[in-house]
């Protein structure tokens, strides 16, 4: 699709992406030029997206392999740590109980979402996204080797399990952090358009607007779909855990991750890769410190300092400060995400424990989390191919703030559903409010209360649907609102909110006992709903200025954005 073309025929499902050699890497260039629409045309013409670049799919496959490994092993951690090696509660290894398992699992999640800041600094300042991802892949592999070797029966019998597990989750967390902060921006970097242009729908000749925000939205929908296809590894690993041993499931994850690393290396010449931008992240933090200290968003600008006779040794320009201001506006929305991540985190720990308190009928309790990615795999194509295009055709707006709010509300429904299931567990025999008591033991193994494990399915599906709106839109928001030099930085700030969510979850550890856990689910349902209401109340006005907030536009172009940055300074 050569630059300079006025009306570019497009098909939302088919088409040929431009070869990287035809696209300038200058981030100030549109990437794909065309006739820019007027404000009237933006309001009246239908908006569509570009065909997705092929390189984006290659990045998505690499992420699929990484998530196959991550979820395939992490989904087994609750049983691995909670249950004893003697098999009295089903296959286990470390025997640390529910609180110990949830505590270590929550720490792992916390660590995985703190380390992306390190990954962002290394990528933006030193290595670039591609090299950072590659080097941290090797770190990840070391952690997987330790986990696999120390989960072998002979290692567990000689007491190597706990030390090996702690070392492994620290190293794996470091590896995944270096990958996570960079792979999401890298996939969107494969698409170059940054401004709306006029195009033509080849199906009917209709004049339409080719909207890069829609394409980025679709890229992240596909990206998240691949993540959840990968996470379906939990369909197999629980059976490997039960029938062979934990080591076999961890070995499978290791092999899949090595395969993804090989794809990453072989695809090097295909990717569009941005070079490192210098001391972006550290300079950004210095700017933020100067803003906070002076209570003035313009305080770090060299021109401002010159006017007041202040610091003269600043090595950034006014444009960089404007980029930091843009990054902070995106981070304002993310400040409320920790509550959502507390809700989301339940599916990988306390939901697994809850399933273990129900009649399994031959289904491993840690197989149930698969209903989360299954719901995403089902609903993402429905939304992407039918619902969203139909809404755009009918000119029904569904901007990011509305999607995020809906995600929080659906997450609230998931917690309410889990609370109802927990209530029914407690009113069912034989153990009632003391699940897995001696009265439930059959052939030496404690069984759950008389409620079918399938009843839990709805909670997982609601969590999955909420992710499509809250988590996917968060990835999209982090990319489109971040300036070009700070994509990894803003992405790491978004991921860092998950660490705060894990910290809150850690604080809830004292109530992780029967029957108090029911009220924890109720509290999370209320908190998620209220937080969604707060987000919409504070930020719904962003919907009216969404186009002006996207990509590389100057904050000073829109009075509403100027007002928001002034409020942020206060």
Automatic annotation (TrEMBL):
<feature type="transmembrane region" description="Helical">
    <location>
        <begin position="246"/>
        <end position="267"/>
    </location>
</feature>
<keyword id="KW-0812">Transmembrane</keyword>
<feature type="transmembrane region" description="Helical">
    <location>
        <begin position="459"/>
        <end position="480"/>
    </location>
</feature>
<dbReference type="InterPro" id="IPR018456">
    <property type="entry name" value="PTR2_symporter_CS"/>
</dbReference>
<keyword id="KW-0813">Transport</keyword>
<feature type="transmembrane region" description="Helical">
    <location>
        <begin position="403"/>
        <end position="426"/>
    </location>
</feature>
<feature type="transmembrane region" description="Helical">
    <location>
        <begin position="374"/>
        <end position="391"/>
    </location>
</feature>
<keyword id="KW-0472">Membrane</keyword>
<feature type="transmembrane region" description="Helical">
    <location>
        <begin position="162"/>
        <end position="188"/>
    </location>
</feature>
<feature type="transmembrane region" description="Helical">
    <location>
        <begin position="517"/>
        <end position="539"/>
    </location>
</feature>
<protein>
    <submittedName>
        <fullName>PTR2-domain-containing protein</fullName>
    </submittedName>
</protein>
<dbReference type="InterPro" id="IPR000109">
    <property type="entry name" value="POT_fam"/>
</dbReference>
<dbReference type="GO" id="GO:0071916">
    <property type="term" value="F:dipeptide transmembrane transporter activity"/>
</dbReference>
<feature type="transmembrane region" description="Helical">
    <location>
        <begin position="492"/>
        <end position="511"/>
    </location>
</feature>
<feature type="transmembrane region" description="Helical">
    <location>
        <begin position="219"/>
        <end position="240"/>
    </location>
</feature>
<keyword id="KW-1133">Transmembrane helix</keyword>
<dbReference type="InterPro" id="IPR036259">
    <property type="entry name" value="MFS_trans_sf"/>
</dbReference>
<feature type="compositionally biased region" description="Basic and acidic residues">
    <location>
        <begin position="25"/>
        <end position="43"/>
    </location>
</feature>
<dbReference type="GO" id="GO:0005886">
    <property type="term" value="C:plasma membrane"/>
</dbReference>
<dbReference type="Pfam" id="PF00854">
    <property type="entry name" value="PTR2"/>
</dbReference>
<feature type="region of interest" description="Disordered">
    <location>
        <begin position="1"/>
        <end position="43"/>
    </location>
</feature>
<feature type="transmembrane region" description="Helical">
    <location>
        <begin position="327"/>
        <end position="344"/>
    </location>
</feature>
<feature type="transmembrane region" description="Helical">
    <location>
        <begin position="133"/>
        <end position="156"/>
    </location>
</feature>
<comment type="similarity">
    <text>Belongs to the major facilitator superfamily. Proton-dependent oligopeptide transporter (POT/PTR) (TC 2.A.17) family.</text>
</comment>
């Amino acid at each position: 699709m050569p630059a300079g073309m006025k009306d570019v025929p497009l098909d939302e499902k088919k088409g040929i992406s431009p070869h990287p050699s035809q696209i300038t890497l200058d981030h100030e260039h549109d990437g794909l030029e065309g006739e820019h629409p007027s404000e009237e045309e933006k309001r009246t013409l239908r908006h569509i997206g570009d065909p997705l670049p092929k390189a984006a799919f290659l990045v998505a496959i690499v992420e699929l392999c990484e998530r196959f490994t991550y979820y395939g092993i992490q989904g087994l951690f609750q049983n691995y740590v909670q249950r004893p090696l003697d098999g009295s509660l089903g296959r286990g290894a470390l025997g640390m109980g529910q609180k110990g398992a949830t505590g270590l699992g929550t720490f792992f999640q916390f660590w995985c979402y703190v380390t992306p800041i390190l990954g962002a600094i290394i990528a933006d300042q030193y290595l670039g996204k591609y090299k950072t991802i590659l080097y941290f892949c090797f770190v990840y592999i070391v952690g997987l080797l330790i986990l696999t070797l120390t989960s072998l029966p002979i290692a567990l019998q000689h007491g190597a399990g706990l030390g090996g597990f702690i070392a492994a989750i620290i190293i794996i967390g470091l590896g995944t952090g270096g990958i996570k902060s960079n792979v999401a921006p890298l996939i969107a970097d494969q698409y170059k358009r940054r401004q709306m242009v006029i195009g033509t729908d080849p199906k009917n000749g209709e004049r339409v607007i080719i909207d890069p925000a829609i394409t980025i939205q679709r890229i992240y929908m596909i990206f998240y779909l691949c993540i959840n296809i990968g996470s379906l590894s939990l369909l197999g690993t629980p059976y490997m855990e039960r029938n062979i041993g934990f080591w076999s499931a961890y070995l499978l994850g290791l092999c899949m991750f090595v395969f993804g690393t090989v794809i990453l290396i072989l695809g090097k010449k295909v990717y569009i890769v941005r070079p490192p931008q210098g001391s972006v992240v550290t300079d950004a933090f210095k700017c933020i410190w100067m803003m906070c200290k002076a209570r003035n968003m313009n305080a770090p600008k060299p021109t401002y300092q010159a006017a007041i006779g202040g610091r003269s040794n600043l090595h950034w320009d006014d444009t960089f400060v404007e980029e930091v201001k843009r990054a902070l506006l995106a981070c304002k929305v993310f400040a409320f995400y920790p509550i959502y991540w507390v809700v989301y985190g339940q599916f990988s720990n306390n939901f697994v424990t809850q399933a273990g308190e129900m009649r399994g009928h031959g289904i491993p309790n840690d197989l149930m989390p698969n209903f989360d990615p299954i719901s995403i795999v089902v609903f993402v194509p429905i939304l992407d191919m039918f619902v969203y295009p139909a809404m755009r055709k009918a000119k029904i707006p569904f901007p990011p703030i509305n999607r995020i709010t809906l995600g929080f509300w659906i997450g609230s429904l998931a917690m309410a559903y889990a609370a109802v299931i927990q209530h029914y567990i407690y009113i069912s025999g034989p153990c009632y409010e003391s699940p897995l008591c001696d009265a439930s033991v059959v052939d030496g193994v404690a069984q759950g209360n008389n409620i079918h494990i399938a009843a839990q399915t709805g909670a997982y599906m609601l969590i999955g649907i909420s992710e499509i709106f809250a988590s996917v839109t968060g990835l999209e928001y982090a990319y489109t609102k971040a300036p070009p030099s700070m994509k990894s930085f803003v992405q790491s700030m978004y991921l860092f909110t998950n660490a705060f969510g894990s910290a809150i979850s850690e604080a809830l550890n004292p109530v992780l006992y029967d029957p108090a856990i029911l009220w924890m689910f109720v509290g999370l349902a209320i908190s998620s709903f209220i937080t969604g209401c707060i987000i919409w109340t504070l930020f719904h006005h962003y919907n009216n200025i969404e186009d002006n907030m996207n990509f590389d536009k100057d904050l000073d172009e829109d009075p509403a954005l100027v007002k928001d940055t002034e409020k942020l300074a206060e």
